[in-house]
Amino acid sequence: MPRLYHLGLSEREIAGAQIALLPGDPARVEKIARMAERGRFVASHREFCTWLGHIKDRPVVITSTGIGGPSTAIAVEELAQLGVRIFLRVGTTGALQHHINMGDVVITTGAVRLDGASAHYAPIEYPAVADYNLVWALVEAAQRLKIPYHVGVTCSSATFYPGQERSDSFSQYIIRDLRGTKSEWQRLGVLNYEMEAATLLTMCSTLGLRAGCVCGVVDTPTQEQITPESLQRAEIHAIQVAVQATEIFLDKQL
Ligand code: URA
User: Fold this and answer.
1) How much is the pTM?
2) Which of 123, 171, 205, 235 gets the highest tally of CB atoms within 10 A of its CB?
3) CB under 8 Å to 39, separation ≥6 — which residues?
4) What are the backbone dihedrals phi and psi of residue 235, each rounded to the nearest 5 degrees, phi first?
């Protein structure tokens, strides 16, 4: 098989990896790979940076998806063509509920499909749900690591600013259809905003692939500003939980 266009990867280079860890940020790829064994750089093209590592002696590919559904869908499509079957997003997120604190992690069971890209895989009535065993492994990992965690529904927005009704946007204008949506998601118990889970979960379950999502909290309803400190703490917690969950997943042959 030739080198795939967007990821710049060939089948040989991912060494038979069946599991992928998927951060959005290319800079997070190396951080994850360094927490696995024998991490090494493989390829970098556009927003897609790939390293290969080993967990429990099994090859694991770590690839950045970039921000949002369209680039996430490309990464998953091409990794699946190379033989990957299990996908775990390792992201950052904004909390919607007041009981969630900076640095906590959110483990997604299902996602509100405001991403756009998932509609190219299934009609909007189709639910964006995570693989049960991956959710279980993520919960078990957070418990073992004593990292505060929350399990539930995530809202995946196609945009960071208007779709999440952020007050720090350029125009601060929100179109009518989106006005009031943040308080509605809060009222409906949605835990958090991010931008990739709905695409990942929908496309994986429709394609016969398995997917999960863990995100570290970088902003909250009372602190919208993302600081380097909040980002670092959230990132490290999400990575630790994802790597430990992968170990559990492989150990228990889930
Ligand atoms: N990612 C998002 O999409 N929203 C946030 O508030 C933080 C990270």
Assistant:
1) 0.98
2) 235
3) 30, 33, 51, 52, 53, 62
4) -60, -45
Of all protein residues, the one whose alpha carbon is nearest to atom 2 of ligand 1 is 194
Report the run of H or E that residue 128 belongs to, with start and end.
strand 128-129
Mean pLDDT computed over every residue of the chain: 97
Q: How many CB atoms lie within 10 A of CB 247?
A: 17
Nearest protein CA to atom 3 of ligand 1, as residue = 194
Q: What is the pLDDT of residue 61?
A: 98
Q: What is the DSSP letter of 196?
A: S
Domain segments of the chain as ranges: 12-252
Quick: pLDDT tens for 150-206: 999 999 999 999 999 998 999 999 999 999 999 999 999 999 999 999 999 999 999
Element (H, E) at 162: none
Q: Which of 21, 22, 20, 59 is nearest to 39 (CA)?
A: 59
91 CA distance to ligand 1 centroid (A)? Answer: 9
User: Tokens in use for 4?
Assistant: 């795939």
Candidate from 218, 222, 224, 233 with most ligand 1 atoms within 8 A of CB, to mutate = 218
The yes-or-no verdict on residue 235 having pLDDT over 90 is yes
Coil/strand/helix, residue 10: coil
CA 245 distance to own-chain centroid:
14
Choose one of 194, 199, 213, 226 to mutate for the ligand 1 pocket test, by most ligand atoms within 8 angstroms of C-beta.
194
